[in-house]
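Would you mind writing out a protein's amino acid sequence and the numbers that encode its backbone to help me picture the idea?
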Amino acid sequence: MTTNSREPLILLNGELVSLGPLSKADIPNLTRWCNDPIALLLGGDDLIPITETRSEALWTKFIEEENDKRIFFTIYEKASMRPIGMCNLRDINTLHGTGELGILIGDAGDRGKGYGTETVALLADYGFTAFGLKNIWLDTLSVNTGAIRAYEKAGFREIGRRRAAHHFGNEVYDVVLMAGVPEEFYALHKSVIVNPYGS
């Protein structure tokens, strides 16, 4: 069951998930997810609470401002069209063909089911196709082995580490840097974005 009063807009469809633009109806979920310590740890974010008012202002700005440097999507479980997370391409630089990928699967019960892997593949395909990017990079914590496996399955590989760069309580983790390029990505995946005028 979605929080939307109508069917959500969908741009990209996989087998498990669909991606559509963020809407104001997503803000309560985003606020809840961004106050979840485990979701923040897995995302490599700081453990700083966000109020409903601040969250609404922040996400409304992202939703309402047109910006070709930053694209946000809601992730839906395809079978139920239930929102399960958020993903984005940001710092898009068409001069150099680069961008950064981010993803959040909000609830623990939705992790480890292949949703993240497919979302990353859809988003990478979108970046390579719609923006002509040649390199999409991301970072994650070394403790987040599930995400690292998902990124590898989606065609990304480790390109370096920032050692001992993230503290969480008494623990210290490396920040793992990963990147994907079209040649390696399309050796593993077919594009879901079909050019009707292509050869």
